[in-house]
Amino acid sequence: MEILVFKTSVTSVESVSRLTPLLNKLAGKDRWNFALDDCDRILRITAGHVRPGQAVQVLTEAGYACEELE
Predict the structure, then answer these.
(1) Which of 15, 2, 17, 4 shows the shortest CA–CA distance to 53?
(2) Could you say which of 6, 15, 46, 49 has the lowest number of CB atoms within 10 Å?
(3) 6 and 42 in contact (C-beta within 8 Å)?
(4) Could you tell me what percentage of the chain is helix, strand and coil, using 3-state DSSP and rounding each to the nearest 5?
(5) DSSP-derived 3-state class of residue 21
(6) Residue 56 to residue 61: CA distance in whole angstroms
(7) Dist. CA 1–CA 62, nearest whole Å
(8) CA-wise closest residue to 2 among 70, 58, 61
(9) Which three-class secondary structure state does DSSP give residue 54?
(10) Cβ(41)–Cβ(11) below 8 Å
(11) Number of domains in the chain
(12) Which residue segment(s) compose the domain that 26 sits in?
């Protein structure tokens, strides 16, 4: 199972709440999490069927910056 890691502009628990239905649909419940205390506000997704571009698109369309970290 691959773990995808992204730098985001998500800064609050409220933003995470707004993104929850979108990320659950994309990756599945309990298969993603944010590290809001990290300077890069990391999003981690554990899902073999999610492509990095899909996650970037979901966050971008919701109004947040998102880029994959290598």
Answers:
(1) 4
(2) 49
(3) yes
(4) 35, 25, 40
(5) helix
(6) 8
(7) 26
(8) 70
(9) helix
(10) yes
(11) 1
(12) 3-68
Which domain CATH number covers 51? 3.30.70
* Amino acid letter, 30: D
17/14 Cα distance (integer angstroms): 5
pLDDT tens digits, 35-51 = 999 999 999 999 889 99
Contacting residues for 66 by C-beta, under 8 A, at least 6 apart: 6, 7, 8, 9, 43, 55, 56, 59, 60
For 45, residues 6+ apart whose C-beta sits below 8 A from its C-beta are 3, 4, 6, 23, 26, 27, 31, 32, 55
pLDDT above 90 for 1: no
Which two three-digit tokens encode residue 44? 């981690």
